[in-house]
Amino acid sequence: MKNIIWIILIMCFINNLSFSQSKFIVQNKNGSDKIRFKLIHNLIIIPVEINGVELSFLLDTGVNKSIIFNFLNITDSLQIKNTETIYLRGLGEGEAIKALKSKGNTLKVGDAINLDQELFAVYNPNLNFAPRLGVQLHGIIGYDLFKDLVVEINYSSRKITLTNSNKYKYNTCASCETLNMEFYKNKPYIYANVRIREKQIPVKLLIDSGGSDALWLFEDDSLGIQVGDHFFDDFLGHGLTGSVYGKRSKIEGFSINSFDLDHVNVSFPEPTSLVYVKLHKDRNGSIAGNVLKRFNLIVDYQKSLITFKKNKYFSDPFTYNRSGIELEQDGVRFVKQKDYNYSDKIKFLGSNQKTSSSTIVLETKYKLALKPAYSIVELRPDSPAEKAGLMVGDYLLSINNKSTDKYSLQELMQMFFEDKDERIKLVVERGEAILTFVFYLEDVFKQ
User: Residue 11's pLDDT is what?
Assistant: First the structure.
């Protein structure tokens, strides 16, 4: 009888554990864990372990599925299993992409673990965001993590805190704004206001931490959401099913309750890119990374609450790419560098009796090192760079007399976002030729 009772107790424990592990749980005594993240182009990149393999994922509130891409190039030990073929759609003008739906995966984010995670594995070799970011990116995670835990995003310290909802305690914060979130297809929305032509317009926006822009708005003449007189056509980014193009402009203001931001960057994507994302008819656009990073956030899906608190980035000006150049990391190149493991040697070459002088030569040894190669992949029509003669496919060798191997991709791109008419000198490789170009960053919106 005792054995039967013991077996029943064990089975109950196993069933409870199995049930609890179909979702993320922080498995430590505090029920909470902090994880450092990289902030690249206003995007949050976090470490995620899948079936024992550590990868890098984009933390994206705008997705309702966990996606891993190009998994065939990672490792055989990833062991994607229990699959069925499906097709996914997202931003972009391309066709739906093929994916494998996989169940029973173990995902670990810090001390938060899910033993039965559903994944969508995409093996399209063209779907690769790493070159545009300059860092490895293996997938995207959003709803699956946010639905189970209270997630604090501290953009200032570049840390996220994951806490089991039953362990989380809210502190009184007089300087915070807490808003209700609404959900459509497991994606979060909030209400805010935009100011266009001195008119306050209420808008419903998707919270999209996976977008690097400030705001996206969908044109609607009946509401007064219009591009205005000052704008330029531009590449807006990569979606799941292709590139997205549209118009870039500025609006007079954007507000979240008492928090007001002035002269905010806004993008108006082309309608052809929105066919499969504007199914929610009440949606007016998205609030993305360049606004979100100005706050530290508490995101609580279970209570449908999001809390905003201003941080050190709040008052930073909204800048944009004034060059017209979009770069990506395109392979590697050999760079000649001084070998610091080799001691300089002094070589005496003899003396001249007539002048009583000697010749001494300092020998320095160099080595060839592999460094990232950066190429132009998008060039805005009529931009300063295009007018100077630069072309898509040019490889950057130096910028303002300094070799590009001294910079990360993010640092290079940031130089094109200067809030002034900065002089830019680029040396590029085009085929067999080495060419030099000079141009000035230009403010399209300058009156």
Answer: 42
